[in-house]
Design brief:
- The complex is a heterodimer of chains A (329) and B (658).
- Chain A is of the alpha+beta class and 329 residues long.
- Helices cover 40% and strands 18% of the residues of chain A.
- In chain A, β2 and β3 form a beta hairpin.
- In chain A, α2 (12-35) packs antiparallel against α3.
- Chain A is elongated.
- Chain A starts with a helix and ends in a 7-residue tail after the last helix.
- Chain B is an all-alpha fold.
- Helix content of chain B is 61%, strand content 1%.
- Chain B has helices at 6-16, 38-59, 73-91, 95-101, 125-153, 164-184, 187-199, 207-226, 243-246, 250-278, 291-322, 336-353, 356-370, 377-390, 409-418, 420-434, 443-466, 468-474, 478-508, 514-540, 555-585, 643-646; strands at residues 618-619, 635-636.
- Chain B has a two-stranded antiparallel sheet.
- Chain B is globular, with a radius of gyration of 25 Å.
- Classes of the chains: A alpha+beta (329), B mainly alpha (658).
- The interface between A and B is large, with 101 and 98 residues.
């Protein structure tokens, strides 16, 4: 009896597969054409470009998953509803309890997908030098020239010229409740404006004076937590000019919500003009600033990059303080 | 291995011939207002609070946390500690251990029959379960009101209902209360109530520890609530240091509240896990243990193993606040990363503490309403255990961009994505069970379907976070916020509501009004999605979490989410009304086993008698043999007939909640 009913029944899985396959193809194509190009975080930097691509890959992968489950549940609601008169009696027993083919194919398909996703994510992460995320004080994936430029910046020897393929080092200092930026290539002046040259590799040295903030430049696809006493390095490679938003991405107290401003990527010559002008304008202020250091809070031994602007303290140097091994990073 | 032969016999004897009434009753056990109950607990808490505060000021009167602030964190902390001790002493948790310490025989808990047992210390797991139902709902509604306040503030980016200070404290209180509530929302009420019934036991392994965990949980509610009169705390539920070190006295409430909730969770988890392992009825082999119990077992394991890290984190924070240690202060040799790691080492298993019970409920309900056996039972169990084990290896995905050693990132990306394999099993199980089923769309079943809909979005959006490059864009924004509301509210809380609608007839013997609950379901489901789906988009457009203002262009989406959130809030009011109407205003007796479930918990009398089963059943098979001709009988209830047939109708004393 049961077998007869089964033979009369439509081939549910085949039907479901067909509907699912067609709909996710359509969904993915529509997504790619309509939403993909506008997806966050845009293409202002190389990492933004790649992160947008990664986001699109994930969306296009999740469309078949969502559609698969939704279509199945919609189908079940319609076909196997007790209210439907022609709904056949269900058949229990061992056959309904397990189906090793279905189980193993589910396990295999999801496992392979997930592992491939992780491999893809790793390739994207490493290939894009950390994808704009904060890599801590000792980054492992470095674009060419950045380590040298960063070391030079700390020694007060940073330079930057337009059309020279030089790396620009910018220090981001989080404090309650704003970000300020220091440009070591221009005498280490400090400003609350973040202006960056186009077509340039940029190193952000992110630190904090008080609590944890997170430097989140949305369109640049840069996010790095600012921890007091630590230097968190993130990279960006600008590709387009225009304005971008900076937010604090980590709850930092009462005015966390208003800790945002906007910066802009401008042409290299415009940047040079701005930097020279600002350097001159802020010269009196810069003279009173502590020397350029990775962090500005005293370390465990009281040594500091410059909370005390009397010139007697040495810049914070983990290797001098702790020997070759750096503390918690 | 699973059962001691003595225990059933002992209880059988007791139920066959009720024990003689004790004559001499000490004052602590006298019925009526003079014995110990909620009132004495409140008095104890107030006295303890006062004593602790006085003592703190006495020993450290000039020891300000911030110079000239007048804030003495030692007094505040001791007040809370002593308040909790007073609360526990007032309810009577300490009587037994103190008697034992004094070398005397501890007294048994009094067997109160009337409604006042719900405001007393009770060793009956069913009473504790219902106590939990009420208190998690209290938690849930308090924190829900705060959510309404948040959405009111976010109606406009420029016009502010609250000051920035008040707003961030509302956000923090909402998040913390919800997390505390959600970690117990299923294990507390349904776990305590149903686990013994489902495994054929008359009791929990450690009823005193069970009662202790409940009263500590409620103390946690009072402590975290005390943050508000203390001026709140600004750190969100994650409590990141050194912001926490900078915060005012409300922070102590957070740190101490979370620490004791951690102890309560560990105690509850420990008790439940041991009950499941040791108190299964004869024949209840591991392959016959219901999927819900497996889910609770996995959760209990997580609760026991993960919370010590939370406790330690809270303790360090309290020490930082009181005796000015510097565990989290980098300037003085501590590290802000210490809190992040300790917290998330607890925090990620916590996330699955808030997911696995939902899986268990759904796996339990689906076969009943699909009239088919649970598909791939072993896969459900493997999924639940796999999630539990893997959840200890993923915590650093919360701090991908924080500046920790980057070379670990691919590993945590891999483990995090791997965890979606066992998580996905619940979909295989759900879809397999529904295949060629005959689905009855009752309210609990609708909640199961909603669980799958919401949890799918929640789960898929979680994969986005785990991908490090995409994490740069979505971390710390509304995308994450929406993701975890989809999994916790959309997944766990929907499953819990489904479970409540399903099991309340068993617990109370009353029917829940169908029409009202149907309206409640649809408003909750629709407005939940209308609230949180826009937040995914808001997040992708770059709005950070916990902000009181935002880009003007996002006003439309935020307003839409806010208005939907108010409607969602109304649906929870409707839920309260549904319960009040069905249980108090117009109670109707529920038919026996109204859903035609094969579950062991339904095979006893309804409402469940004090000792659960007339005789300890001997389990013959698993409870999922729906639509199977010649299926074996679930259990032998002794004497050839089921307990349900032979049991006497519940006496007045046993009618729960009436």
């Amino acid at each position: 009896m049961a077998r007869e009913t089964m033979n009369e029944e439509p081939r549910h899985l085949r039907r479901l597969f067909a509907v699912w396959f067609v709909s996710w193809i359509i969904g993915d194509v529509l997504y790619w054409l309509l939403l993909g190009p506008h997806m966050a975080p845009g293409d202002m930097t190389k990492s933004a470009h790649w992160n947008q691509f990664d986001l699109n890959v994930l969306f296009m992968l999740c469309i078949p998953v969502l559609f698969g489950v939704w279509i199945y549940f919609a189908y079940a609601t319609f076909m196997w509803n007790a209210k439907r008169k022609s709904c056949p009696e269900p058949v229990g027993g061992p056959a309904a309890e397990t189906n090793s083919r279905a189980q193993w194919s589910w396990i295999w398909i999801t496992s392979v997908t997930v592992v491939l996703l992780a491999v893809y994510g790793t390739v994207a992460l490493v290939g894009d030098n950390g994808s704009g995320g904060g890599e801590g004080p000792s980054p492992v994936w470095n674009p060419p020239g950045t380590v040298k430029a960063n070391t030079a910046a700390l020694a007060g020897k940073a330079t930057w010229q337009p059309n020279s393929d030089q790396v620009l080092v910018v220090q981001v200092i989080g404090q309650q409740w704003k970000f300020t930026y220091r440009y070591p290539a221009f005498g280490g002046f400090e400003t609350s404006q973040l202006i960056l040259p186009n077509d340039t590799a940029i190193v952000f040295d992110v630190t904090s004076l008080d609590v944890i903030h997170s430097f989140w430049a949305y369109q640049l696809s840069v996010k790095a937590d600012a921890n007091p006493g630590y230097n968190n390095v993130a990279y960006a490679d600008t590709e387009h000019t225009g304005p971008f938003q900076v937010h604090c991405g980590e709850l930092c107290g009462i005015w966390h919500g208003s800790m945002f401003n906007s910066g802009s990527v401008v042409s290299q010559t415009d940047f040079m003009t701005w930097a020279k002008k600002t350097e001159a304008q802020t010269a009196a202020n810069t003279a009173n600033l502590p020397p350029m250091a990775w962090t500005y809070t005293p370390d465990a031994n009281g040594a500091s990059g410059g909370l005390y602007p009397d010139g007697t303290v040495t810049p914070y140097s983990p290797s001098e303080t702790y020997g070759a091994k750096q503390p918690a990073s | 291995m699973s059962i001691s032969t003595e225990q059933p016999n002992e209880v059988v004897r007791r139920s066959a011939a009720p024990p003689p009434k004790r004559r001499a009753i000490s004052w602590t056990q006298r019925p009526g207002w003079m014995s110990q109950h909620l009132g004495t607990a409140l008095v104890g808490a107030a006295l303890g609070y006062w004593l602790g505060h006085w003592f703190g000021n006495y020993i450290s009167s000039d020891y300000s946390y911030v110079a000239n602030s007048g804030q003495n964190s030692i007094a505040d902390t001791l007040a809370l500690v002593m308040g909790v001790v007073g609360w526990l002493a007032g309810i009577g948790v300490l009587n037994y251990p103190l008697a034992k310490i004094a070398g005397r025989e501890g007294k048994e808990l009094e067997d109160v029959k009337d409604w006042t047992r719900y405001v007393r210390l009770s060793s009956d797991h069913k009473v504790v379960g219902l106590q939990y139902v009420v208190s998690v709902l209290l938690f849930f509604f308090t924190a829900g009101l705060l959510a309404m306040a948040i959405r009111t503030e976010l109606l406009s980016p420029t016009f502010h209902m609250f000051s920035a200070d008040t707003y961030i404290k509302i956000v923090s209180e909402h998040g913390t209360m919800m997390m505390m509530m959600a970690s117990s929302i299923v294990v507390g009420p349904l776990g305590n109530y149903l686990v013994p019934l489902m495994i054929g036991s008359r009791r929990m392994a450690f009823p005193r520890i069970e009662a202790f965990s409940f009263w500590l949980f409620t103390a946690g509610y009072l402590v975290i609530f005390s943050a508000l009169p203390y001026g709140g705390f600004p750190t969100g539920w994650t409590g990141y240091a050194p912001l926490a070190n900078q915060a005012g006295p409300g922070m102590v409430s957070y740190l101490f509240g979370f620490a004791i909730i951690g102890v309560a969770m560990a105690a509850a988890g420990f008790n439940i896990a041991i009950t499941i392992v040791n108190y299964r009825a004869p024949g209840m082999t591991w392959s016959r243990v219901p999927a819900f119990v497996w889910g609770i077992l996995a959760t209990a394991g997580l609760m026991t193993l993960a919370t010590p890290s939370l406790f330690v984190a809270g303790l360090f924070g309290i020490l930082d606040h009181t005796v000015l240690t510097t565990f989290y202060v980098a300037e003085h040799g501590g590290s802000s990363y210490l809190w992040e790691n300790l917290f998330w080492f607890f925090g990620h298993p916590e996330v699955y503490i808030m997911a696995l019970p939902g899986f268990g409920i759904v796996a339990e309900l689906l076969p009943v309403f699909a009239r088919k056996p649970l598909f791939a039972f072993k896969v459900v169990v493997a999924g639940e255990l796999g999630v539990a084990v893997l959840s200890f290896f993923v915590w650093q995905h919360h701090i991908f961009q924080s500046g920790i050693d980057p070379s670990m990132r691919p590993l945590y990306m891999l483990t995090t994505e791997l965890i979606s394999i066992p998580t996905g099993f619940i979909f295989l199980v759900g879809m397999g069970t529904l295949y060629k089923a005959k689905i009855r769309f009752t309210v609990p079943m609708l909640f199961c379907f909603a669980f799958f809909f919401n949890f799918l979005i929640g789960g898929v959006s979680g994969v986005f976070q785990s991908d490090v490059p995409v994490n740069v864009t979505v971390h710390g924004g509304f995308f994450v916020l929406s993701h975890f509301h989809y999994t916790i509210l959309g997944g766990l809380v929907f499953a819990f509501f489904g479970g409540l609608y399903y099991w309340l007839p068993l617990m109370t013997g009353l029917e829940i009004n169908k029409k009202l609950s149907l309206i409640q379901f649809w408003t909750m489901f629709v407005f939940f999605n209308l609230t949180f789906f826009p937040m995914l988009i808001i997040g992708l457009l770059g709005q950070p979490r916990r902000v009181f203002t935002y880009a003007r262009a996002l006003t439309g989406l935020n307003d839409f989410a806010s208005v939907s959130a108010f409607c969602l809030g109304a649906s929870f009011l409707l839920f309260a009304w549904t319960l009040a109407y069905s249980l108090v205003i117009n109670p109707k007796k529920s038919p026996l086993n109204p859903w035609d479930s094969l579950g062991l918990e339904w095979q006893t009398a309804q409402p469940v008698p004090v000792h659960n089963f007339e005789r300890i059943p001997v389990i013959m098979t698993d409870p999922y043999h729906y639509s199977e001709e010649g299926a074996p009988k679930l259990a032998d209830f002794g004497g050839g007939s089921s307990a349900r047939e032979s049991s006497v109708p519940p006496t007045d004393n046993e009618t729960v909640l009436r």
